[in-house]
Amino acid sequence: MESDADSAEQLDSPSDSGSDFEAQLRPKKRRSRAVAPEAPPSKRPLQMSTVHSPHVSHSSNGMLVAGHLDQVCVQEGSPATAGDLYEALRSGRSAMVTVVDEWLESYKQDKEAGLLELMNFVVQCCGCKGFVTKEMFDSMENVEIISRLTKDFNEDCSGYPLSSTGPQWRRFRTCLCEFLQLLVRRCQNSLLYDDYLFSSLLALLTGLSDSQVRAFRHTSTLMAMKLMTALVEVAMDVSTQVETTQRRYKAEMCKEVELRAQERLEKLHTSYTQLQDQQEELQSMMNTVFKGIFVHRYRDLVPEIRVICMEEIGVWLQKNPSVFLNDGYLKYLGWTLHDKQGVVRQQCVRSLKALYREKDFAGRLELFTSRFKERMLSMIQDKVNDVAQEAIQLLLLIHQNTEEGLSEEECERVYPLVFASHRGSACAAGNFLYHRLCSELDKENQENEKRKAAFLLLLVSFFIQTEFHEHAMYLVDSLWDCAGKELRDWETMTSMLLQEKGQNWGLKDEEEGALIEVMICAVRQAAESHPPVSRAPAKRVLRVKDQKAQEQQRNRLTNHFIIVLPQLMAKYSADAEKVTSLLKAPLHFNLETYSSNSRLEKYLDLLLVQLCGIVEKHQDDEVLRACALVACALCAERYSFSARAEMSISQLLDRLVDQFTSGLTDVLQGGADEDELYSVAIAMKRIAAFSSAKDLTGREMLQPCLQILKYGLESREISSMVMVPALKCACFHLFWEKVKITSSVPSKPALKQLRQNVHSLYAVCQSCLSVGEVELRDQAFLLLCDLLLVYSSSLVQGNTALQTLACPPSVSLRAEMSSFLLDYVFTEPENDPQDDDEEGEFAKIAVLQRCRNQLAGYCKLVIYGVLDLSAASDVFKHYSKFYKDYGDIMKETLSKSKIVSPILSAKTVCLSLQQLYSQLPWEQGEERVRFSQEFREMRELARHLAMTFGVNLHRVRKPLVALHKDGIQFAFQGAKDADKIPHNLLFLETLSEFSFKLLHQDRKQLLGFLKRLAPTPLPAWPSLRLYRHSLEMGRRASEKGHTPSHPTQSILTSKRPRTSSKTGTDMSIDSSVPRKKDSQWLESSSIASLATPPLTSTTLKGALPQTSVPRVDRAGSLAASDEEGASEPESLKDFMERQPASRTSLQRRQRPVFLAPSTPSTQSDLGSHLSLLTLIEEDEEPEMDNFQSGDSDSDTPITLPSTRHSTSLLEELFS
C-alpha cells in the first residue's frame, strides 16, 4: 500500500494516480435540449457546486436534526409534481420496471418537465414537503434552490423516509435503490450519455450531499452511491464490449488485404470509438460521484451515511476489481476500521469479508493485509460484540485464502474467545478453531473412523492446554454449530473411554477426564438445545421442527448411554471427579425408555447397582450429591419402574441408618473409638446428601442428630467430621417438615413440636457460631440463614394455621450473627508468603467464595424482613473498604433496602456512619482525629454512599432529609451551652458530604432544624460552619440565579433549545438546560466536578486516553469528538489541510458555544423566519486526529463466564 504521504498527494492532486478516473470537479451545467426556432429561449443552466450557506444558524454542538419541510411556494406558477412516482415507490405495489419505463416515456416527450419531476421526486424522498417550481427551475441554480428550501425548513416533524422505522419505510428504501439501478440499466444505451439527464441529476445530488440538513445529505448520499454502483456495473459491461470489439477488429486486420471486409472494419472501428466515448463518459460520471460525494461523506458526522459509503465501496471493489481493487480505494476501508461507531466498523469488516472470500483477490490484497492486519486482529476484542464476531470471521477468511495466512501466535489470540460470554463471538471463534483443527487433520490422510478419534484427541488437547477446565460447556456450545456432528459421535467417544491403556486410542488419565467432561457437556447440549448460562438471556421457545429434532437427539443418546453408562461407571468408579461427571448423564435421559423396552430393564438394575456401590465407596460431597440427584430422578412416581428403583435406594438407606444407629450409643456415651466415630460420620454424611434431594423425615433422624450436636457442644470431644453432617441432617429434616405441613392441615401438637425443634436448632446453630472449627462454624451460619428464612413470618403470611410456626431470631442471635460478619467476613486476609503459589491462590479464592455466600445469606435476611433494616448498618459501613470483594452484594442490598423502605434505608446509612464515628480513636484527641486516616476513610465512605442515591432528587427528598435530621441530632447530643463543644459535632463534616443532593426547599428546612437544636446564638465552631456553608451555598446560588462554574454545569447550559416553528424569533438556549427548580442540586453537586470520560477506543481496555477537543471545519463532516467520529491515519490530515480555514471561521471558533437568551440572531437572510439552531450543523469540516494504533489496540483480558454461585442449600432444595 502507498505511504500516507503518497495517499495524501493522490487525494490532493487533480489526477489521482491511485484512481483510473481523472478529476473533473469543475462545475457542470445542465444542457438545454435543442428547440425549434420559434420556441422560447432555453433556461439558464444549473451549475453543480457545493452548498455553503453562511446565513444559516447553527446548532451549538454541530448536530443537525432532520425534519419535514413546510409546504412552500416561493415562486408563482404550477409546480411539476412527483407524487405519482413517490407514491409508487412508497406503496411498493407497482412493478419497478413499469414505473421506470413510464417515467422514461414522459421524459422523452419533454426533457425539462421530466427532469423537473425527477428533481421534485428527489426532494420528496428527502422528506421535504416543498417543491421546485418551473420558475425556480428556469431561473435558479442548484445552490440557490437548495438554499431556498433549507431556509424554510421546519423541525416540528423530526422524521424523514430513510430515518423512519417500520416495514413500509424499509420497503421504500429497497424500492428506491431498485428504481435507481433500473433507471441506469434502462438508459445504458442512450440517455446515460446524453450529457443532460444524469449530469443534472448528479449535480443536484452533489449539492444536496453537501447540505447542512441531515435529510438532504443522507438521502442524496444513498441515491448517489446506488447510482455509482449501477454505473460500475454498466462500465463493466462496456469494458467487456470494448475488449470484444478490439479483439474482433484485430482479428479482421490480421487477414490478408484481399480478404478483409472494409465495411466490417469501419463498423468495428466506429463501434470501438463509440464504446470508448461511452467509457470515458462513464468514468467522468463515476469520478464525479467519487470525488464530489464519497470522499466527503465517508467521514460524515452521521454514522448511517458512513455505513452507506462503506457498503457501496465494498460492492465496487468486488464487482470491478480491475479498476477499484487497489490501494487508492482500499485505504478508505482501512482508515474507517478505526471509526468510533460500531455499526460503521461492522460494515467495513463485512465489505472486507466479501473481498477475502475471493481467492483471486488475494494477490491484490497482500499490501492491505500487511498494513491493517494488526488492526483487524485487535478488533476481535471490540467493545461492540457484533463487530468482534465479524472480525473473527474475517480473520478466518484471511487465514484460508491468503498465502501467508495467520501465524500461530496470531491464531492463539483468537482461540481463547471460544470461552467468551457473547455467544456470537464465541461461535465465530469456535468455527475458527474447528477449521484450524481440521487443517491439521488434512495433513494426514486417515480413515474416517481414525479421523473422528483424531479430531476428539486434538480437541481434548486444546481443552487441557487452555486451563479453563471449568468451562467445558462453553467450549462445546462454541463448537456446536460447526462441529456438532463430531460432538454427537457418542460411539467414538465411549469406545475411546472404554479402551485400556496401550490400545489404539489408549488415553492418559488427564485426557480421559477432559474427554468425559466434554462428552457430558455435549449430552446436555443435545438434550436441552439451549446455550449455557450467561450466553442467552432466557430459554427460547423451540419451534415444532426443532422440538422434534431435539427429541430425536435425546432418544438417540439415551439408547446409547443406557447400555454403555454402567460400563463407564464401573471402570471409573474409583475416580471421584470422573464419576461425578458421568453421573450427570442420566439426568438428561428420556427415562421412559427403560419401561418401553423390557430388554433394557437389566441395564436399569446395573445402573442401580453401580449407583449404590459408588455411594458406599465414596464420601466426597460432590459425588454423593450427584448420586442423590440420580436416585431422586429414578424414584419419581411418574415412571413405571420407580418401585424397583425405590426398593434399591431404600435398601441402601436402611444399611446407612443401621450403620449410624449402631454406633450412636457409644458416641453419646463417649466410649466410641476413632473407627466407630468415622463409621458414624460417614453414614451421616451419606444420609445428609440424600436428605438434600429426598424426603427422609420418616426415618426420624432429627432427635439423634440434635443429641449428637448438644453432646458435642457440651463436651467439646466430637470433631466436626461428625457435627457437620449431623447439623445438615437436622436442618434438612426441618426443611422437609415445612414442605409437608404447608401441603396438609397439621394438628396443633404437631405445630408445637415443630416449633420447639426449630428453636432447639436455633440454639445449637448459635452455639456453633463461636466454636473454633472453621468448617462447623461456617456451615452453621449458612444453614442458620436458610432456617431463619424458611421459618420467618413473611413466608407464613396468609396462612393462619402456620402463624405459630413463625420463629423470629432472638436479640442474642442477631448480635451473634452480626459479630460473625465482623470477625470472619469483613476481615483483611493475612499475607502469607507461602500462599503465593498456585495452591495458595486457589485456597484464597475458596475462602472468598465462602465469605461471599455467608454475606449473601445475611443480606437475604435483611431484604426479606427477618432482620431489621438497621442490621444492614454492619454491612454498609464496609461499603468502600471491601467493595472489591463484596461490592456487588452490598450494592444490591442497598438497592433492595431502598425499595423496602427508602426512609429507613437512609437512616441505616446514617447509622452505619455513626457507628464508625464512635469507633474513631478519640483517646488521641479531637484534632488528631480530624486529620486521622480513619476519619478521612469515613468521609470517603460518605461520598460513595451519597452517590448511591441517584440523580432523581425529587424521589429521594424525604430519605435525604431524614438522614440529615438523624445526623444533626446525633451531632448535638449533649449540647447545652455554647461554651462546650459537643462530642459528636465533628460528625457534621461527614454529613456535609450528602448536602449536594438536597433541593432548595429541603436546605431551608434543614437550616431551620439546625438552628433549633444548636445553641443560640450559633457558635463559630468549624464543623458547624462547614455544614452550614454546605447547606447555604446551593440555596443562595439558586436564589440569585447564579450560573455554576463546574464543568458539567457548563456543558449542560451550553446546549441550544429546540425551537418551535410557530415563533418568529430565534431562540438561543436549549430546552435541555435544567429549569430553576430542577437544577438547584447541580449548583452544589460534587458530580459537577467529575470529568466526562473520553470514550474514544473501539476495543475493550482498562485505561482510556484523554482526547483533545477537535476543531470543526465543514458541515456534515465527521468530528473526532468523544460522542461519535472516526480516527484517521496521518494521510487524511494532509488531505484536509489543503482547505485552509478562513479568518471568519477562525474568529467564530473563539466565540462561546451558546448565546445569551436576549442575544438576537445575527443571521441576516433568515430575518424573522424559522430558527435552524437544532437543524443545521456547523458549516465546517472536522480536523480528524491521527490514529495511533497503540491507543485503541491494547490487549484486554477475555470476559469469561462467571462461576460464582451464591445460592444456598435452601435454594437448591426447593429449585
TrEMBL record:
Keyword Nucleus recorded: yes
UniProt keywords, alphabetically: Cell cycle, Cell division, Chromosome, Chromosome partition, Nucleus
Domain SCD: 294-379
Location (main, coarse): nucleus
Protein localization: Nucleus; Chromosome; Chromosome, Centromere
Record has Nucleus as a keyword: yes
Entry's Gene Ontology molecular function annotations: chromatin binding
Biased composition (Polar residues): 1060-1071, 1186-1209
Function: Component of cohesin complex, a complex required for the cohesion of sister chromatids after DNA replication. The cohesin complex apparently forms a large proteinaceous ring within which sister chromatids can be trapped. At anaphase, the complex is cleaved and dissociates from chromatin, allowing sister chromatids to segregate.
Family membership: Belongs to the SCC3 family.
Protein's UniProt name: Cohesin subunit SA
